[in-house]
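agent> Task received from the user: take the single chain below, predict its 3D structure, and emit C-alpha cells. No templates, no multimer pairing.
agent> Plan: (1) validate residues, (2) run structure prediction, (3) serialize to C-alpha cells, (4) report one or two observations.
agent> Step 1 OK, no nonstandard residues flagged.
tool_call: predict_structure(input=
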Amino acid sequence: MRNQKKWMLAIGLLACSVAMTAQQQSDILSVSASANAENAALAFDKNVKTMWTLPPQSLQAGQWLMFTIQQPGDVCELNLQMQGINRNELKDALDIFVTYDPMNLGNPVDYRIEGNDKQMNIKFNPKYGAHVKLDFKPGKLAKPFSLKEISVLVAEKVLTDSKGEVADRRYMDAALPVEERVESLLAVMTPADKMELIREGWGIPGIPHLYIPPITKVEAIHGFSYGSGATIFPQAISMGATWNKKLTEEVATMIGDETKAANTKQAWSPVLDVAQDARWGRCEETFGEDPVLVSQLGGAWIKGYQSRGLFTTPKHFGGHGAPLGGRDSHDIGLSEREMREVHLVPFRHVIRNYDCQSLMMAYSDYMGIPVSKSKELLQQILRQEWGFNGFIVSDCGAIGNLTARKHYTAKDKIEAANQALAAGIATNCGDTYNDKEVIQAAKDGRINMEDLDNVCRTMLATMFRNELFEKNPSKPLDWNKIYPGWNSDSHKAMARRAARESIVMLENKDKLLPLSKTLRTIAVLGPGADDLQPGDYTPKLQPGQLKSVLTGIKAAVGKQTKVLYEQGCDFTSPDATNIPQAVKAASQSDVVIMVLGDCSTSEATNDIRKTSGENNDWATLILPGKQQELLEAVCATGKPVVLILQAGRPYDILKASEMCKAILVNWLPGQEGGPATADVLFGDYNPAGRLPMTFPRHVGQLPLYYNFKTSGRRYEYVDMEYYPLYRFGFGLSYTSFEYSNLKIQEKPNGNVTVEATVKNTGSIAGDEVAQLYVTDMYATVKTRVMELKDFTRIHLQPGESNTVSFELTPYDISLLNDRMDRVVEKGEFKFMVGGMSPDYKANDQIKHSVGYSDSKKGVSGMLDYTHQFAANFALAISKVEENLVTNQKTVWVSVRNNGTLMDVGKVEMFVDGKKTGDAIHYELGAGEEKLIPFKLTKENKQPVAFTTKYKMVSL
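)
tool_result: status=success, residues=955
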C-alpha cells in the first residue's frame, strides 16, 4: 500500500486531507486486441513464461490491447513486464487511455515510466474508468516485442476528517455517474447523518465531515426577502395582473441576480396555487384564479430565475388555493377531477417543461389524506406520472401537523416522520425531522431506513447533478449586509415598470383620468396614501425604500398644485380616526385620491395587524377598519374621488363603484408603486393591467370564479344576482380597442389555429391583452362554461392593427370523460378572442349565451371539430430478471400508448388474486413506452397478474 498522491480539499470552511492510496491489482473481466487476439489473455495469466507478442509485420499499422477491470475505479498505475523493448522506445510508441465509456476514449493520460526495461512501472494521475486501452502508434516500432504480464493498480480515495477518522469519499469524484456517487455516499452515512441531511434550518445545513454542501434558501416571491436592502418588486398577484410572460421572466431574472449576489442557491418560489376564494389571505402570493394564467406566468418566473443557475421550489402542492370558507389550509374535499382539471395543472406544466430541482408540498389534503403523507400525490402523480426527480420540501410544520396538533393520523412525531418519509418528503421545515426523539428513533431502527435512504437519494442526486459538491455558491447570509447589485438603478426601473403594467383601471367615469398635472388642489387621503404596502415575504425595509402614492403624486405635479394629505384612519383600528380632517381636506380640493385596502408588509414591521398574507384571511371582504366609513364620508362631499385599491385580493367595492368617479387597483405594487401609480394617474402611462381574479358584488357570492360549471337549477340568489362586479380579465384603458376578422382552422393533425385582428381605435398608444377562451358546447361530462386557453399582451399605436395568433393542441381542448380517461371528443367548440373574459346570461342554455355582447370588445366563432383523440395502452411482460445475490426476481412490465393522446394510468400487481404492493402510475404520450419493475420472490409459485384499467397480462 503506497501513497500515490496527496492534496488538500477545501469545502466551505473545512479543509480535509485526501490521499490516493494504491490497492492490490484489480481483477480483469475481459481483454481484446487488434492482433494476436487469441493470446491477449496471456498478459494477465500471472505466468511470465507466457506472453502476448506483436510480430514486426503488424507494427506499421498500429495496434492496441484493451482490457476491462472488474470494479470501475481510479486507475493510477500499470506494471508491465516487457521483452524486446526499452523504456524510451515504449514511451515514444505508447498512448494509454482510461475510460468509463469504451466508445468514447477521450484524451490519453500523461504518464511517466519508472523502473527498468524488464519491469516498467507506468504512473499517472488517477483517472476514473472501467476500461484501459494500450494504443501502439503506427510506424514507431520496427522489431517485435512481448508483454509478459500486466497488473493494474486502482487508487482508493481515502478521506481523513479533522479528527483523523477515515471514511470513503469516492462520491467526491465528479467523473462518477450520479447514481454511483449517491450510493457511495449513502454507504458511509450513519442514521444520524441522514437525519441531519434532511433537517431544514434556513436552508439545508450540509454535513461538513462528509463534505455534503449546504444549500442556502430564500423566499423570493417578489424579491430577496431576507436581510434588508434588496429590491422589492410587485407582489405575485400584481404580476398576475400584468398578463405579461416576458416581463415576469425579466423580473424573476433580476430577483435571481440579487439572490446570487447574496450567495444563495434556492428559492422557495413561485406560488402556483390557483386562488379560488378572495377571502384567502394568500391570494396575494398567487398569479390568480386560472390554471393557464398561473401556469404561463409561473413557468416564466421559473425560466427567469433558473437562468441564473438557481434552484426553484414551486409551491404549494397541491390544491392549496381553494380552502373551505377561504380559511387557510381548511380542506374543502376537492375531487380528483377538480384537482386534475384545475389545481394540479400549473404544477404539471412546470414539472414537465422545466427542471425544477425541488417542490414544496401543501398543508392541504389530497383525496382525504393530508398531503404530507400522500404517497399518491407525492410519489405516484408527481414522480411516476410527471417524472419529477428533485427533492420535496415540507411546508413549515406540515409533518408535525400529522399528530394531534392538527390531523390525528400519527400518534407522535416518530410516526409522523415515518408517514412523511414514506410519502417522499426530504426536507422538513419545522419540528419533526430535527426532533431528538425522532433522531434517536432513526439510530434505534424505529425509522424506516429504506424510506429514509430514498429521500436522501433525492436530495443527494439533485446536489450531484447540479455540481454542488464541486462548486457550491452557498454561504451564510449576512443579514446586515446590502449585497452588490441589490436595488440597483436598473432594478428600480424594472420594479416601476412592473408596477405600472399591473395597474388595473376598473372605472373612469366622464374620463376623469388622466388627471392634469396643473390642478390647483389635490387631496390625497387614506391609510395607504403615505404607507405603501409591499406584501407578505418582504425584507426588513430600508428608510425611504417604499415610495408611497403620496410621494409619487408630489413628484409628478408642478409647484402650482397644492397637495393636501390626511390619513383619515389607519388600516384596521375601529376606533382612532381623523375622518373629519380628511373630509375637510377633500372639501378644499379639486379632486380626491383615496388609497385604501390591505395592510400587508414586512414581518420585521411590528405592532400592526395584517389583513392579507399568509394565515391572514378576511371574512367579509369589506374594507378593514374604518376605511369604508372614510370612503363614504369623503364621497359625500361631492368632490370627484379616485379610489386606489392597494390590496392583495379582490374586495367588495360595490358601493365604491357607485360613488367613485374612477377606480384603480394597484395591488401590492412593490417599492416603486407610488411613482408607478402617479404615472397612470397623470397619463404618463396608459393602464393595461387585467384582473387575475374575479371581483364579487358581495362576499356571499364566494367562491366566485369565471370558469364555473353549469348549474342544475338557478344561478342567482333570492336576494342577489349571480354576476360579478368586475369579471376576470377585465381592465380599462385610456384608449380603445376593437376586435375583428376571427379565423378558426382545424389542422390535419388536430391542432386548432385561431387568429383575430386587434386595432387601436383611440387617440393614444397603449397595451392590449388579447385573451383566447374556449367553450366545449356538448360533451360526455359537464364542462366549464368557458376556459382561458392562451393570451398575449401587445402594444399598439393609435390606428395601428395587429393580428394575434394562437395554436391549440388536441391536449389543450381535451377533457376527462365519464371514466376519467383523457379524450378529445368531436363536436362543437366556441372560440372567443377579446380583451376580457366573455359575458353570459346566467340562465338556461348558458353556453349558448357565452360571448361578447359588444362585438367590438371581442369576437366569437364556432368550429365543428372533426377529430377524436384518446390513449390506448398496451400491456405486456417485457422480461424477467433473476438476481444472483438476493432472493428476488424482477418482472419488467411494458406499458405502451398505441393511441393518439397523452393520458395517465396505473399498473397493479396481483399475486394469487390479491393486490400486492403499491400501484405504479404513468403518463405517456402517443407512441411512448414505459418499463415498470415489480419485485417477486424467486420461490413464488402463485399465479401473478398485472392490470391496468382495461388490460391484464399474466406471468
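agent> Step 4: summary for the user.
Confidence is low (pLDDT under 50) at residues 1-24.
agent> Done.
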